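Figure 2 data, in text form.
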Amino acid sequence: MSCNWGTELWDQFDNLEKHTGSGIDFLERYTKFVRERTDIELSYAKQIRSLSKKYHPKRSRDDESRYSWCLAFVATLHQLNEIATQREEFAENLNVHVVTELNRYTQELKAERKTHFQDGRRAQQHIESSWKQLES
């Protein structure tokens, strides 16, 4: 009686290696994307803060500060400054919570993958040597 069921699953070591490698490559690309987004968020926050400071009145002018349009403009500048702060916090959170965790997870996956494939290669070599012993 021959046991030939599941033979399509045998010898898929190379395909498995390619598949897991492409998964890790995607994870590294995604990490790079998030890191670049963090840089963009920080740059945007810096530019918004600079714009707010540039147009913020240097000193309080009594004659202008009583007009509603002037008060609205100063309030807008304060809101821009708040937006810059939020963007900086968002970028910092992305960096601390997402990028560092993705880097850590990628390194763990690479190490785990390496040990599994070393074990798999050893098992393949053992199978090949066993076949050779059986044949002789």
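Caption note: Residues 68-135 form the longest helix (68 residues).
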